[in-house]
Amino acid sequence: KHSVLVVTVLVNIFSTSICTGEDTRTLIWSDEFDFLDETKWLHLVTTYPLDDFHYARNNRANSWVSDGQLHLMPTLTADQYGEEFLFTGELDLYEEDPEHPCNIWYDREDLCYSRAGEDIVKPVQLARLETRGRFSFRFGRVEVRAKLPLTNWLRPAIWLVSEHNTYGKFPASGEIDLMESSGNRDYHCGVTSRGVDTIQTNLHFGPHGLDHHWSNYTLKTNNTMTYADDFHLWGIDWTEDHLAYSVDGEEIYRLKAPGPPGGLFDLAGFEGENIYAGGGPMAPFDKEFHFILSFGSGGWPFYDYCDPPAPWTKDSKSPRKEFWKARNEWFQTWQQPFTIDYIRVYQ
Q1: CA 210, CA 85: separation in Å to the nearest integer?
Q2: Taking the CA atoms of the chain, what radius of gyration do you get in angstroms?
Q3: Local confidence band at 23 (pLDDT 50, 70, 90 cut-offs)
Q4: pLDDT tens-place string over residues 201-238
Q5: 107-160, pLDDT tens digit by residue?
Q6: Three-state secondary structure of the chain
Q7: Of 283, 324, 327, which Cα lies nearest the Cα of 85?
Q8: Which of 56, 187, 258, 266 has CA 20 to 30 A from 86's CA?
Q9: What is the dihedral of CA 12, 18, 22, 23, to 10 degrees?
């Protein structure tokens, strides 16, 4: 898979972070997606997050491998159950596919069902793949070669979360967002593009239960082509004293450990007991993390005050119904899947 090009690019990306000028780390895990390897990936089957417009399932209409690449694509609930079901039915993820039933491990009474009521049953079907329980790692170099989807009002994401939640629930144990974007070709909030020509990286951490936490997003806009027009290379360089993001060989953000006395807790300006006091210089980014490949729907970065406006109102009590009624405007834009060529981890 473009091995000569990858080696050249990686030397350019990462040589600046290695004191010797040569990256000697070796491959410890990869998926080249020659087949859908369920020893490496868990398909989460759930209606989580409840506010999103989609549910996640294990179905080859939404996730499949071909030509050495993984493809993720949305489908419509109504195509399987009929439109009336959206307004009157109950989606039961134990019954939909007994061979791949709901497998979320908490709040199953809510997160395994979607019921019509004030709003409709979730109208979109998607896939969410995780390496949780199969592969996690601490520190290293990550490379992901991917091409983004064309799917209006859906947000593709490549991200990592803590394997063991050592420091507590989100955001306490940290989140590493390697890539977030949207499937819209042309979409702006004010002067800022939020379309598929722009990607965002982010880091999240802080004590659980506060009304705020630390995050520092970085936007990268490609002015010559969108990230859906060709494959691009996303990278992480993660060590015990820094975490850096790169896109196509260009470093776009670096968080460096501030050192004692208070580490990242003090850097973020939190008060009270330092929940990271027992960790390393990059705590909470000093524990094992696992990968997630997913979509978001129904929320950020889509709003009715942007251009074009999202086809639902921000404070609506039935946003999924509003979204569904506008399907003749957005369904025709669902033209291209989210495609991942490979993921590689080096240490």
Answers
A1: 39
A2: 20
A3: confident
A4: 999 999 999 888 999 899 999 989 999 999 999 999 99
A5: 999 999 999 999 999 999 999 999 999 999 999 999 999 999 999 999 999 999
A6: CCHHHHHHHHHHHHHHHCCCCCCCCCEEEEECCCCCCCCCCEECCECCCCCCCEEECCCCCCEEEECCEEEECCEEHHHHHCHHHHHHCEEECCCCCCCCCCCCCCCHHHHCEEECCCCCCCCEEECCEECCCCCCECCEEEEEEEECCECCCEEEEEEEEECCCCCCCCCCCCEEEEEECCCCCCCEECCEECCCCEEEEEEEECCCCCCCCEECCEEEECCCCCCCCCCEEEEEEECCCEEEEEECCEEEEEEECCCCCCHHHHHCCCCCCCCCCCCCCCCCCCCCEEEEEEEEECCCCCCCCCECCCCCCCCCCCHHHHHHHCHHHHHHHCCECEEEEEEEEEC
A7: 324
A8: 187
A9: -80
Burial class (CB in 10 A: 0-12, 13-18, 19+), 66: exposed
Instruction: Quote the distance between the C-alpha of residue 320 and its chain's center.
Output: 21
